[in-house]
Amino acid sequence: MIARKRTSPVTKSEKPPTEHKPTIASAEDFRLAPPKLRVIFVISSLLCSLYLYLLCFHYNLIPVAARYVLRRNMFGFDINKRGTPQGDVKVPESLGIVVGIVFLIVAIIFQFFNFTEDSLWLVEYNAALASICFMILLGFVDDVLDVPWRVKLLLPSFATLPLLMAYAGHTTIVIPKPLVSYVGLEILDLGRIYKLYMALLAVFCTNSINIHAGLNGLEIGQTVVIAAAILIHNVMQIGASVDTEFRQAHAFSIYLTQPLMATSLAMLAYNWYPSAVFVGDTYTVFAGMTMAVAGILGHFSETLLIFFLPQVLNFLLSLPQLAGIVKCPRHRLPKFDPATGLLTGTKDGTLVNVYLRIFGRKSEKSLCIHLLVFQALACALCFLLRHFLAGWYK
């Protein structure tokens, strides 16, 4: 049996273990862990499935509603196709009521997933939905009773009352830096004048969508473009800010704009050239009010007005006829030539006619695409202005 050798109690002094220093990898040696694409794919699929379900549900609801409005003799004829077989087809009108109803259902159910009972934003959210619902009702009344356009200008001012009464946000404006030396203030409190400004902004946005129309797909197309710009702007502002209230205001705007864009895309499939349905004033006033509310409660009304640059130009061109200085016909549409299928600009003061007078005759589909591209360029101009004027203007 082999005995184990005992160690001597006196051992040689051992050197203390050297401290391990972590090695710092250079930029060339750095390797990023592979991304978890599966997680992103699963989450995106769940979100997209809900989004696509909304589109499909609304998409299938439109033909059902179209049959009902035809039974009530709510139809019209496409004036821009007069003299052709398509010009004699009865086109269902006022289908904007479908967009509005689906929007309200989605927006109301959304409260269950986002807001709590003591949420400070819940009151303003419900007030915003009340104003939008009020505007949908007034728009549908206009489609049924054919309200005179002078009365139509005042309808949004009544619809904004729930929002104005419940608004508890700030009423101050930031004076542009180049004007601070002249005004003597950096921040100016407008008080009730600010609420008057909110009401006027809602009136403008609502009616500007309504009067910049007359082509298949133009009303919904411009709404989709502006709504996309609003969503991009909100996401950019949320990512660039650390202020909780500021981020919540822009998130609030997203809550209203996202369902507007989803329902509008479903309707655009039926309203694009050649249009199978007409959205009527119900949709135009609803879309304008929704974007106005999103801009007001998101606190980016100046940016919203630049997004509406084509609508501002159309309003300025229409002002002589709207004020009664120049005779205003019922339909200020371009002249259609059945032989060529092209539209010719008339002397009426609209952006559609001015565009045709400058760039020549075009088909209805081509003209609508050109105007939507112009709308997108106006939104891109807004982003460029915000980028180059940041730090100098405000």
Automatic annotation (TrEMBL):
<feature type="transmembrane region" description="Helical">
    <location>
        <begin position="39"/>
        <end position="62"/>
    </location>
</feature>
<feature type="compositionally biased region" description="Basic and acidic residues">
    <location>
        <begin position="12"/>
        <end position="21"/>
    </location>
</feature>
<dbReference type="GO" id="GO:0006488">
    <property type="term" value="P:dolichol-linked oligosaccharide biosynthetic process"/>
</dbReference>
<keyword id="KW-0808">Transferase</keyword>
<feature type="transmembrane region" description="Helical">
    <location>
        <begin position="120"/>
        <end position="141"/>
    </location>
</feature>
<feature type="transmembrane region" description="Helical">
    <location>
        <begin position="196"/>
        <end position="214"/>
    </location>
</feature>
<feature type="transmembrane region" description="Helical">
    <location>
        <begin position="285"/>
        <end position="309"/>
    </location>
</feature>
<feature type="transmembrane region" description="Helical">
    <location>
        <begin position="94"/>
        <end position="113"/>
    </location>
</feature>
<dbReference type="GO" id="GO:0003975">
    <property type="term" value="F:UDP-N-acetylglucosamine-dolichyl-phosphate N-acetylglucosaminephosphotransferase activity"/>
</dbReference>
<dbReference type="InterPro" id="IPR000715">
    <property type="entry name" value="Glycosyl_transferase_4"/>
</dbReference>
<feature type="transmembrane region" description="Helical">
    <location>
        <begin position="367"/>
        <end position="389"/>
    </location>
</feature>
<keyword id="KW-0812">Transmembrane</keyword>
<keyword id="KW-1133">Transmembrane helix</keyword>
<protein>
    <submittedName>
        <fullName>(rape) hypothetical protein</fullName>
    </submittedName>
</protein>
<feature type="transmembrane region" description="Helical">
    <location>
        <begin position="220"/>
        <end position="240"/>
    </location>
</feature>
<keyword id="KW-0472">Membrane</keyword>
<feature type="transmembrane region" description="Helical">
    <location>
        <begin position="252"/>
        <end position="273"/>
    </location>
</feature>
<dbReference type="Pfam" id="PF00953">
    <property type="entry name" value="Glycos_transf_4"/>
</dbReference>
<feature type="region of interest" description="Disordered">
    <location>
        <begin position="1"/>
        <end position="21"/>
    </location>
</feature>
<feature type="transmembrane region" description="Helical">
    <location>
        <begin position="153"/>
        <end position="175"/>
    </location>
</feature>
<dbReference type="InterPro" id="IPR033895">
    <property type="entry name" value="GPT"/>
</dbReference>
<dbReference type="GO" id="GO:0016020">
    <property type="term" value="C:membrane"/>
</dbReference>
